[in-house]
Amino acid sequence: MKKENIISIQSQVFDGFCGNNIAAFVFRRRGHIPKILNTVQYYSKFKHSGVELNSQEVDIILSEYNKDQEFMNDSNIYFLTGYIKNAECVDMVTKNILELRRKRKIHRGKSNDNGNMNGHMNGHMNGHTNDHMNNDHMNDHMNGHTNSHTHGLTNGHMDEPNGEHPYRLMNSNELKSSHQIIPQGKQIHEKDMLKNNILTISQGRKKDEELYFIENIINLNFLWVCDPVMGDNGRLYVDERVVESYKKAIEYVDIITPNQYETELLCGIKINEEKDVIKCLDVLLHKGVKIVIITSVNYNFDKDHLFLYVSFFNNKNKIVYFKYKILKIHFNCFGSGDLFSCLLLSFIVKQKGNILHIISKVLNIVQISYHEKLYKDKNEGVDKRIEQDKKSLSIKKQINKKKKKYEELKQKGLNDINCLVNFEAKQQAECELEEIRKLKEMEKGKQK
């Protein structure tokens, strides 16, 4: 059995979770022993005070690693790259990865024990078919939604979740399926989703599953997963020349995981609708990327969901496209891309098999982790907050009651012709008004 070498080249922060803060934890939690190279050491995601490696320093570390690995053919090598601030460092990382790949004489096709191309993979595929694709296994993952539960990232469930792979075809009554194959170059419409030419995994036969085995798509003896961290929501947060460096590097990347904005930068195509996404997937695949995963696409017509797209050449040399519909969490999920990419690599290394199953499991974990984080934040000090809310509610009820009485007394004082009653009503109204003022002050004090 070959040894594994996972090299994670990303950012590190003193305060917070992103880049290697997440990757190091996830890899170790899942039983890997990663080699960590921090491209920057910042105070936090928002305060970029700290240390940044230059290209010479990156080269010193990676070239030394390459020397150690040059003659160690008994190990598989997996690179994960994330935030790299300047173009020179991106170029240097690319150079070292390519040098090591060349020295190891690795082809970028399908895997086998010798690291060479093998078009059939019969024995290997049959083993995985029995392990991963039997009917019982498939049925376990096709019934209902995930029941997995975690307690936040630090105690997160980074193992395989107990749940399904949500592979259902949309029908006219519900548009809640997670993914389906999109016919090449064709935009999905609701009427198309009922046609037989859209294959779903739950309908597919066992032999169809083998088309999506990652072992049949890329060489797992040497793998580069690239998260081209450049920006988000129309804002670039790296040097502009980094975009050009990634454009040159992507032809050597095995799996790329850009978000919508990063995809637009790499392809020069503005994404407004699904056909634009298909064009981008085609561009990246024809540039040489083996598997393209666009991690988060926003559409104006659906404010409550994000869409993730996956595309690759299957073992019949045909491009296939998939999409996942994901419930949007309406708060800033910092580090979600970093969590996705390191979990993706971990599941590929440990599990192999159907890439679509892997992505579903990764998405389940990411969603669960952030829902748990949101739940925890909302319920921090929940008992204290409930007690405070009860008191506030009681005060509000008293204020409303006093206001009502004040208005009644005020009206009585204005309308009553009896001077004595008029005077008494005004006095009572003023007392009620003073009580209202005191209650409001009390309410403000409780809120502090």
UniProtKB/TrEMBL annotation:
The cross-references to Gene3D superfamilies, in alphabetical order and at most eight, read: 3.40.1190.20
Q: Which Pfam families match?
A: Phos_pyr_kin (PF08543)
List the InterPro entries hit by this protein, alphabetically. PM/HMP-P_kinase-1, PyrdxlKinase, Ribokinase-like
Which stretch is the leader sequence? none
Which positions fall inside the Pyridoxamine kinase/Phosphomethylpyrimidine kinase domain? Answer: 221-351
According to its UniProt record, the EC number is 2.7.1.35
Q: Name one GO biological process term.
A: pyridoxal 5'-phosphate salvage
Keywords in UniProt for this one? ATP-binding, Coiled coil, Kinase, Nucleotide-binding, Transferase
Q: What GO CC annotations are associated with the protein?
A: cytosol
Q: What Gene Ontology molecular-function terms does this entry list?
A: ATP binding; pyridoxal kinase activity
Tell me which SUPFAM superfamilies the record gives. Ribokinase-like
Coiled-coil region: 392-446
**Family as reported in the entry's similarity comment:** Belongs to the pyridoxine kinase family.
Name the record gives this protein: pyridoxal kinase
Q: What is the lineage of its organism?
A: Eukaryota, Sar, Alveolata, Apicomplexa, Aconoidasida
